[in-house]
């Protein structure tokens, strides 16, 4: 697990100045947990600006968020980590935090197990409840569909009826029905007696 975290943090350090979100998060973690880098402070060597192969002002150094503040609220020199990657741990114990953030955060979680467990539980319980409710809802839908006891799940089909056999000439948007039977097939002989006063208009569907 630490290997996965280490590789991810190293990838973030590699793009430290390109990814503002990761930069802000890592700066906060390094200051909050008094740590530097992922596994150790030398992880900063993977960044092109902090690499010892670079010749810039940040070369072979670490960000100022790795530096130790001797006085609370002290304004830190942004170049306080200059050339620290060339030195060993014992030479830096009063200058920067040499412990990696993976170990620092892991120790904090162990020391605050109850709080950690509560946070994890508060995140997982709503997810589990949501999954259970979704499953129950899906089961209910399957039950309703299998019984077909609602119109919403029934297919209405027109059977044994051919519109081609009906004379709809001149109907337009309205079927004028001269008799209760409405329009009749073309070949059927109609009666001459029609009641003009009883004409009913039915809108097309």
- Low-pLDDT sequence parts: 150-154, 188-205
- Binned, the helix content reads 25-40%
By DSSP (H or I, 4+ residues per run), the number of helices equals: 5
Beta-strand residue fraction: under 5%
Q: What's the count of strands?
A: 2
GO molecular function: enzyme binding
Protein name: Tetraspanin-15
Family: Belongs to the tetraspanin (TM4SF) family.
Membrane topology: Multi-pass membrane protein
Task: Explain what you see.
The protein has five helices and two strands. The chain is mainly alpha-helical and 205 residues long. It has three domains: 2-107, no CATH class; 115-152; 157-205, no CATH class. The chain is elongated. The chain has a two-stranded antiparallel sheet. Helices cover 37% and strands 4% of the residues. It is found in: Cell membrane; Late endosome membrane.
Summed up:
This protein has 205 residues and is mainly α. 37% of the residues lie in helices and 4% in strands.
List keywords for this structure.
single chain, 205 residues, mainly alpha, 3 domains, two-stranded antiparallel sheet, 5 helices, 37% helix, 4% strand, disordered C terminus
Lay out the secondary structure.
Elements: H1 2-14, H2 20-32, H3 89-92, H4 101-111, H5 113-147, E1 174-177, E2 200-203
Antiparallel strand pairs: 1-2
């Amino acid at each position: 697990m630490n290997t996965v975290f280490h590789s991810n943090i190293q990838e973030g350090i590699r793009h430290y100045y390109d990814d503002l979100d990761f930069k802000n998060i890592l700066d906060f973690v390094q200051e909050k947990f008094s740590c530097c880098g992922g596994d150790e402070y030398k992880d900063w060597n993977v960044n092109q600006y902090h690499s010892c192969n670079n010749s810039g002002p940040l070369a072979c150094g670490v960000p100022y968020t790795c530096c130790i503040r001797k006085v609370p609220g002290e304004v830190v020199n942004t170049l306080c980590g200059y050339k620290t990657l060339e030195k060993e741990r014992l030479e830096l114990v009063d200058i920067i935090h040499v412990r990696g953030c993976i170990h620092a955060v892991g120790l904090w979680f162990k020391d605050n197990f109850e709080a950690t467990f509560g946070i994890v539980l508060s995140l997982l319980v709503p997810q589990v409840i949501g999954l259970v409710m979704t499953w129950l809802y899906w089961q209910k839908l399957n039950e309703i569909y299998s019984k077909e006891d609602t119109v919403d799940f029934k297919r209405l089909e027109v059977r044994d009826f051919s519109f081609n056999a009906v004379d709809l000439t001149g109907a337009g948007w309205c079927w004028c029905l001269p008799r209760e039977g409405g329009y009749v097939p073309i070949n059927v002989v109609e009666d001459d007696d029609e009641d003009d006063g009883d004409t009913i208009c039915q809108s097309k569907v």
